[in-house]
Amino acid sequence: SYGADGRSSGRIYADYSIFKGKAALSASPVLPTFSKTGSGYTKVDRRGTIMLTFRPAIGERKYDSEKKQLFALSVTEIGSFISLGPGDSCEFFHDPSMQSRDAGQVRKSLSVKPHTDGYFISLSVTNNILKTNERVTVPVTTAEFAVMRAAFSYALPHIMGWAHSTNPPTENVG
Amino acid sequence: SYGADGRSSGRIYADYSIFKGKAALSASPVLPTFSKTGSGYTKVDRRGTIMLTFRPAIGERKYDSEKKQLFALSVTEIGSFISLGPGDSCEFFHDPSMQSRDAGQVRKSLSVKPHTDGYFISLSVTNNILKTNERVTVPVTTAEFAVMRAAFSYALPHIMGWAHSTNPPTENVG
Amino acid sequence: SYGADGRSSGRIYADYSIFKGKAALSASPVLPTFSKTGSGYTKVDRRGTIMLTFRPAIGERKYDSEKKQLFALSVTEIGSFISLGPGDSCEFFHDPSMQSRDAGQVRKSLSVKPHTDGYFISLSVTNNILKTNERVTVPVTTAEFAVMRAAFSYALPHIMGWAHSTNPPTENVG
Amino acid sequence: SYGADGRSSGRIYADYSIFKGKAALSASPVLPTFSKTGSGYTKVDRRGTIMLTFRPAIGERKYDSEKKQLFALSVTEIGSFISLGPGDSCEFFHDPSMQSRDAGQVRKSLSVKPHTDGYFISLSVTNNILKTNERVTVPVTTAEFAVMRAAFSYALPHIMGWAHSTNPPTENVG
Known about the structure:
The structure is a homotetramer of 174-residue chains.
Chain A: E1 12-13, E2 16-19, E3 23-30, E4 33-36, E5 42-46, E6 49-59, E7 62-63, E8 69-73, H1 75-82, E9 90-94, E10 106-115, E11 118-127, E12 132-140, H2 142-160, H3 162-166
Antiparallel strand pairs in A: 2-3, 3-6, 4-5, 6-7, 6-8, 9-10, 10-11, 11-12
Helix pairs in contact in A: 1-2
């Protein structure tokens, strides 16, 4: 599988990061991958995601990348996120080992809950193998959430592959 | 008629599919076609659509493509769809044989009706020739509907040809 | 003045047309024009518009292009149009001969007024020279207005030149 | 640092300007800059902004560019701006000499406050070195604010670099 244009995708990296007292939260789009079908057209192979990265604070504006925790929002989870009204909340559950031997051993849950000015975004990771249970929460202001909503809405058709199917890549014959 | 850039369009295929107990619903954009006018400019020949495909379930996460039913949402129907407020409903009627000998023999109706968390999307097909009457309903959650609304809104100016007329295709002189 | 890419713009034409009993209303984006400054960069010369065309009916689904009336919505008028809430109305006045000898002789007014399902869009043209006073009204459904709102919102940054300034045209060196 | 495509960016200039009795307000997007990482991919170096320029009136539709005051809205401030509801207000504070010897000497504050039809946008600049205190206010109508909201929302993913990371620039091999 490869990028829609036959080249490796995502070579430009841009995230949106929020640095708070206890942790930092970064979001960045991950594009879909594509594959050629027998009939000769190109099809989405694996849909993209919005990758959320949480890093705990280890000093003033210093965050520990070694202890980062990831959560990849699916297309439908992004739909839930961007349609949150004031006061609404949502929660998503992921099993990173789904369909493998370790299925059910690690459980990640991401929750978005309203507070006075914005939302708390929390990630819980329960690992039955390592017997660990971690939880990190980042308070997101209304303005920061508005940026996330706008950016996630923009990214959604790209992540779904609709931006690729409605704007076929230019073929240049030099 | 041909694509806006003089090449066959839609070579990258991306849909949004919802798999439910009784049926699956897939949506994908169909781009407009263009033709050259005598005056030398390019004009929309046939507007695009959002193609909805319903496939009945024939087992766990297995769906019958042979029994699929199609419904192509027009530009104005998409306008109706994306402006649905909470609790609103809408219904569209199509005659696939319109302006042919069999006009009036087949009648398709698509309805979108609210439920507690989202909408029911139903397609009814009444075929007077085959004496059949089929109906398939897919429950769509609020999050899934938000994805459809965002994706359909994104696709709308592409389907209308406005994305093409505001972003003329690059001419490459090699 | 020329297109942002140094070529004549708008060579692909796409409109959105509504055909009603007494008249047809078409809308299509008109891109801005650009000019080179002494400092070597390219600047918007004249902002674009959304061109509205009204044609009176002269038979069943036949409309008289010879009697068409035009009204070019400016950027700020488009802002007013797309932010209309349910029940809101707006009215714009244009003098097509502004700053010429005939200033004040022709007065065009476009009004958008709510009705049960959508809006009435009316154009009045009072011509003191020809002693004429024409008025044409097209009823627009909520779904059709949603298409116009989505399409006008999409077109707005293109009409303002922001789509060009944030996405510089590719230079191809073959 | 350089543009995402390795060329100097922003060569096409487009603003949105509002000319009022006491001052003019112009807004235009400033794209992010990018740099190559050791790992070979391109990363946002400095996020873009929306640059607001205020120029005091010095005659009928004449504005003094020599006395212009600038305020660069950050990504999160844009988020705050575009999510303002009717009757909401917001205020941002900038120190243009932050992290330099003169930190704290100049203080800029931009406020957006509702009025009957739209918002007042005011910029205050207090300069302790020059012992000056300037304030300029531009009344913005609901329609003009709608244009700013739409244009700022459009520009946001470009300013964040997400438009670049989801649409990699075309490489042309001639």
